[in-house]
Amino acid sequence: MNHHYLFVSAHLDDAIISCGDYIDSLVRAGHRVTVATVFTDTGTDLSQLARILHKKFGLSTDVMKARREEDLNACGLLGVDTIHLDLQECIYRKDRSGSPSYKKLEDLFRGDYETKLDVISKAAEVLSTRLCLTDYDRIYIPLAIGRHVDHGIVRIASEQATQSISDLEVSSRLIYYEDLPYLIYGQDTQWEIDLAHNLHPVYISLPRCSLKQKTAAILAYQSQIRLLWHSRREMLRQVVQHAHKYRPPGLRLEPSTYCFRLHAVGAPDHVPLATHVPANF
Ligand SMILES: [Zn+2]
């Protein structure tokens, strides 16, 4: 039987950069995939930080329109549906006095998202009202590795939105994905303790053709590559190198395959395409 899976993404690129290869394999297996991105709106009266980032994106006007088109192209390449939920991205948000909520790039990575209750409840509300969460057989959400404020908000909001559904089984459908490129950057050394201590790693072997599809889809996010990696070449090098990193003991990989990792709350067979679960699960 074919299933319908939902990937919740903080920004227009996260789900594909993090899971594009796994998504490709799900689609190849005949399943339907929807990527819902929460923060897809800008604001007026841009902060200095927003202006600096727009320059890095190489975009001057209609920044979100261009980024949404990049997302449609990337998701179209993988054959998945897209939903844009239109909340303001952190660099456009303002506090009650009208000042920008974040003035420096490093302010976005402080990991204090639990104090952002107003944005969390807005995100939980759009996830509950714009999507029918009970329709999806699995819901994939970010771990928030790297502690980007918007990633943390999406994780907590998704947990809240599923927990608020009276059908308790829905919250057991959550599966957590590793945030790339933040995991590759290696700066968040405590993530396993802080963000995944109650979760279990599950490994999935993927064909190399899915990795090729993922990098092709990432290339659609032209404006973000400059910000995240400096160059296309560096993106390709890092993403391919990272994909071949996981070699869990006890798993014999077939030729032309590699290992992808997710984190689950429930039983291993709960994770679609799972091929290997460590013995202590
Ligand atoms: Zn992001």
From TrEMBL:
InterPro entries: GlcNAc_PI_deacetylase-related, LmbE-like_dom_sf
Gene3D superfamilies in alphabetical order: LmbE-like (3.40.50.10320)
Protein name: GlcNAc-PI de-N-acetylase
Organism of this sequence: Paenibacillus albidus
